Amino acid sequence: MVKNGKIHKRKSLFKTSNGRLLDNEIVSPLHTPVDWSKIDPGIEYELRILRDNGIETTESCQGGQGHPFPEPTIRFCGGRAAGFKAVGIAITYGLKMSELRRVWDMQDGELTGPQWEITFYALHSGLGGRAKSVPKQDGSGTVTWKWG
Predict the structure, then answer these.
(1) Alpha-helix residue ranges (DSSP H) falling in 75-132
(2) Per-residue CA distances from 11 to 55, 58, 88, 110 (Å)
């Protein structure tokens, strides 16, 4: 729970099979302000639905050439159940999701994360998607994207 801009612990509402309450969980502040004028139009609809239903998003991209992701992608934070909650929301609202991932990034030589990542089929004509990963030929083990 967030009170006065601070994160507080809350009691879990869920019980285990033996009737004990689950451990307290940390709850992040929901709905960090978004400047909607900077959101890619090809992912805005999906982003609004997830945020309106309590998913704390951290990054989004409509995907495609010139974008950081090859397909429409939304990253979000949360515990083990957050990804499944996002999938439930996507199904409920008829969003055309393609994958759910739990990812760790390398930053300054260290793993950071995990974060959740949900991807969508490119439904918006001319925006994002339809990319294939192609291994670079320099032996680095990295990939680039080919649109076709």
Answers:
(1) 82-92
(2) 19, 25, 23, 33
What are 113-137's pLDDT values in tens digits?
A: 999 999 998 755 444 445 556 677 7
**Contact of 44 with 34, CB cutoff 8 Å:** no
- The Cα diameter of the chain in Å comes to 57
Domain boundaries in the chain?
Answer: 1-30, 35-147
Q: Which residues in the chain belong to E strands, given as ranges? A: 2-3, 6-7, 9-10, 25-26, 57-61, 73-76, 97-107, 110-120, 131-135, 143-147
Find, among 144, 147, 126, the residue nearest to 134 by Cα. 144
Query: With contact defined as beta carbons under 8 Å apart, do 28 and 15 qualify?
Result: no
- Give 7's strand partners: 2
